[in-house]
Design brief:
Largest sheet: 6 strands, parallel
Order of helices and strands: EHEEHEHHEHEEHEHEHHHHH
Oligomer: single chain
Radius of gyration: 20 Å
Keywords: NAD, Oxidoreductase
CATH class of the largest domain: Alpha Beta
Family: Belongs to the HIBADH-related family.
Protein name: 6-phosphogluconate dehydrogenase
Structural class: alpha/beta
Number of domains: 2
Helix content: 40-55%
Length: 272
C-alpha cells in the first residue's frame, strides 16, 4: 500500500516515521520545508502539494491541527481530493467536529473516495513506541483496509462505529482528561493546605484507587496546571468547546463533565 502523510508535528512526525519504518512506500507533504528536514535520512518521498501526494497514494493520513486545516488540505484547490484516485481512502487523525468528517466524507464519496475518522491519543512518545490509541469511525471494510498502516504506530486500534464516532470518543476522552486535571490539581492543593506534602501525596495516590493519568501529568508539572496550560491548553480548550457544541445540538446531558472541564480551563487561565 502506498501511504501519504500530512501533518508532521510533535505527534504526526513519529507516526510518519513508524509508517516508513514498517516498509510502506510513503510520501510526505508539509507547508514548511523545514518540517521535512528530519526525514532526509529516510526513503520517504516528498510532494509539492497535497494533490501531488494524493496522486501517488492509496491511503492519505491527515494529522493537522483543526477543522479549518483539515478542510483546506482535503478540499482546497490543490487538496487531497484533487489528486486521489477513485478507490482511495482518507484517514483523518486530527481531532475535529464529527460533522466536519461527515461533510468531507460526502465530498469524498462523490469522487469515489472513502473517508474514515481516526483520531489518536497518547502523544509523540506513544507514537514513537507504536502504542498510540486510534479510535476509528466509518465503514468496517474501510477501517480494515487502513488497519495495517495504523498498526505501525498504534495499539490498540478500536473501531467505535459509524463515521464520526471516532471523533466523539476522542472528544469525550479529552474532556474527561481535562476535568480530571482540575480535580487532581485541586486535590494536591487541598492536601498542601491541610499540611500534606504534595509530592508524597501524589506518590501515595499513584498506588491507590485515586490514581489517574491526569494526576501523573499534574505531578510532573510540579502540582500546578501552569505548564500544561502552555503546552496543551489551546487544544484542550478547542476540544471542550467542540464536545459542548455536539452535546448542545443533541440536547444530551453532559453538564457535570463539561462543567468540570471548564473549571480546569479557567484554572489554567488563572495560572498563566
Amino acid at each position: 500500500m502506498r501511504v501519504g502523510f500530512i501533518g508532521l508535528g510533535s505527534q504526526g512526525a513519529p507516526m510518519a516515521r513508524r509508517i516508513i519504518g514498517a516498509g510502506f512506500e510513503t510520501t510526505l507533504w508539509a507547508r514548511r520545508p523545514a518540517t521535512l528536514v528530519p526525514f532526509a535520512d529516510t526513503p520517504a518521498k516528498r510532494a509539492s502539494s497535497p494533490a501531488d501526494l494524493a496522486a501517488v497514494s492509496d491511503l492519505v493520513c491527515v494529522c493537522v491541527v483543526d477543522d479549518a486545516d483539515v478542510e483546506e488540505v482535503i478540499t482546497g484547490s490543490s487538496g487531497v481530493l484533487t489528486g486521489l484516485r477513485a478507490g482511495g481512502v482518507i484517514a483523518v487523525h486530527s481531532t475535529v467536529h464529527p460533522d466536519t468528517c461527515r461533510r468531507l466524507a460526502d465530498r469524498a464519496r462523490a469522487r469515489g473516495v472513502a473517508l474514515v475518522d481516526a483520531p489518536v491519543s497518547g502523544g509523540g512518545p506513544a507514537a514513537a513506541a507504536g502504542r498510540l490509541l486510534v479510535m476509528t469511525g466509518g465503514d468496517q471494510s474501510t477501517v480494515a483496509f487502513c488497519r495495517p498502516v495504523f498498526a505501525a504506530y498504534a495499539d490498540p486500534i478500536v473501531h467505535m462505529g459509524p463515521l464520526g464516532s471516532g471523533q466523539l470518543a476522542k472528544l469525550l476522552n479529552n474532556v474527561l482528561f481535562t476535568a480530571n486535571l482540575a480535580t487532581a490539581a485541586d486535590a494536591l492543593a487541598l492536601g498542601r493546605d491541610l499540611g500534606v506534602d504534595p509530592a508524597a501525596l501524589a506518590s501515595a495516590v499513584a498506588h491507590g484507587s485515586g490514581a489517574s493519568f491526569a494526576l501523573n501529568r499534574v505531578t510532573a508539572a510540579d502540582g500546578t496546571l501552569d505548564r500544561i496550560a502552555g503546552h496543551a491548553g489551546p487544544l484542550l480548550r478547542k476540544d471542550v468547546r467542540l464536545l459542548a457544541d455536539v452535546a448542545g445540538a443533541e440536547d444530551t446531558p453532559g453538564d457535570i463533565v463539561i462543567s468540570a472541564a471548564d473549571a480546569a480551563l479557567a484554572l489554567m487561565n488563572q495560572q498563566r
